[in-house]
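Most newcomers find our protein records easier to grasp once they have seen one. There is nothing in a record beyond a sequence line and a structure line. Getting from the letters to the tokens is the skill we practise here. An example says more than a description, so a record of this kind follows:
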Amino acid sequence: MKDKLVRIVVALLLVAVLAWLVSVTEWADTESRTPARGEAATNTLYATQKLLRELGATVVKRPGLDQMPPAQAQLVLMSRRWDLFPDRAKRLQDWVAQGGHLVIPDYLASHVGLKAWLPFSAKYVTPSSRPAQAPAAGGKLAGDWDCRTVTEPESVPASYSGSRSFQACVDQGGRQFTPTGKTQALWSVQGPAGLEMLRVPVGKGTVTVVGNWQVLFNSNVLRGDNPLLVASALQARAGAEFWFVVEEAREPFLRWLWRNGQVAILLGLLALALALWRAGVRFGPLIAAAGTQRRSMAEQVRGTAEFLHMHGGDALHAAQVRALDESATRHLRRHAQSAAEQRNAAIAAATGLDARALLLAMALRPRSPGALACDLELLETARRRLDANAIPHASTSH
């Protein structure tokens, strides 16, 4: 009996808690934006291109304007660097004059490569002169606060039967357009401050400028009557071909270089590898090094005698002085840049020999065979002492 009573009390408490939650909770529907996936996450014009395909048109996406579309095609040009090469402006003008249909956003209306031949003028509307865009009441969703009514003027043919008015759900843009000279608009859309979209003839073709060009973006193209406006602005129809040039994209230079010159690159790398291999430090000699052996005294005497016989004593003295000078250059600092007296003093200090005797031994003067032998012996002694001491860059005395 006691257990049943506890269960009844617990059940009543749960019912009371649920009743309280229901009384203090309000349930309402909310709208949330689904994140874009796939191509729509990277292509801001995916919805517009999808709409054109559903209407039976062909969509071609191009990385640049290096090639003109076919005749009678529709070119949606949004790249700010479309005239990367100087001949493109003339080629684009000729293509339109021969029957092409060009669609551009408002920021290209004043482009130097287009302004000279576009038969309309663009006027910037300052924020203060724009009509107020407050959140609308009367059943509009909170996300439709920027919707407004635009119309096709009576001076142009209506795009659709029944009505010339559209609910444009996008910012009105900063520029309004007016045909220049005797040009008559083929189609236009009138907003609160002027013409927001305009199509004019150029030769056999047309040029359409879209002031509120964000109407083509994924987030706007399906709002309100935007699909109708987009279809009218792009002249969408079954069988038409649309070229979209959104940015001037180029293949990375290294990838392009490899794709077009991989044979030359491989040969160059092979030549570089061979050059590095030849210049590299080896682990050991290619052949066994020949042992160093001292010549015998007889060979030394015979070699000296042959040299004296062929060149004379002066040549032997000059060779001995040159050998001493080369040793001094290797072991004494700034030896080659010093004066003769300073070089002689530095050698004497480094070898411990008499400086005056060294100076006389190195001088060019007539000598008897005995004096030549003494001088040669002194010079050779100085050279051997320099090499034996191996004093690295000893300072010269001044």
User: Anything to note?
Assistant: The longest helix spans residues 253-279. Residues 128-142, 391-398 have pLDDT under 50 and may be disordered. The chain has two domains: 40-129+142-245, 298-389.
